[in-house]
Each structure stands twice: as structure tokens, then as C-alpha cells.
Amino acid sequence: MLKRAAIYGGLLAAGVLGLQALEYQRLVRSDAGGWSQLVLAAAFLALGLFAGARLFGRHDPPDPGNPRAQAALGISARELDVLREIAAGRTNKEIAGRLNIAPDTVKTHLSHLYEKLGARRRTEAIARARELGVLG
After folding, report:
1. Which of 53, 60, 77, 95 is 20 to 30 A from 18 via CA?
2. Domain presence at residue 62
3. Nearest-5° angle of CA 88, CA 89, CA 93?
4. 78 and 107 co-located in one domain
């Protein structure tokens, strides 16, 4: 996400430099009606909406998997969130940041998941969860 923000920031900076190169100030001073300001405002509004949609756009909701298997194993909703995050390949620290919990809490959820899924490591837990239909 930081990479995308840097790209859009660079594009906005290039737009500003382009306006300076076209001597924007002279255009604004000569336009008594303010049409150029309106066009410029509309252009930046469109660029801002586009950048916002790309950076903070909707994400597809996660596949709920098999709720019956989840209930039978006693996996909580938060443990399922952690399981989805490890399936996405994230570290404990990344998971903690994304779910707004402490890294030690992530470790606790992982130990509960390992116990409930009969796994000893992340890869086994993910494979077992997919096998049982907990993960889609």
C-alpha cells in the first residue's frame, strides 16, 4: 500500500510541475470568469477520487468456508481471521498490525488453532483447514 501511495504522490507532483511548466498563473490572471479554476478543481477532484478508489477501494469479502466445520472444531471468528492471514502468508507482526491486536495475542490464537486442527506448524494448519473446508 505504501508503494501505491508513493506512486500516486509522484503522479500528483508531476501534475503540479506540469502546471508550472504551462505557466498556470498567467492563465488564471487572464481568465476573469474563473473557468480555468473550475476545470482545474474538477481535474484534481477526479484524480483524487481515482487515487482514493485505488488505495482504499473495496476488497472482496473473504470466503466464509464451511461454518459447520468451523463450529465443530470450535474455531472462533478471531482465530479464523488469524488463519486467513497466515494463509495469505503474513508474519505474526503483520497479522497483529492488520487485526489491531498484540503479536502475543496472534501467537495465542495460533497455538489454539494448532491444537484444534491437530497441526504443529503454519503450513500444516493451513493444509488441514483447507482439507476440512474451514478455509475456502
Report:
1. 53
2. no
3. 110
4. yes
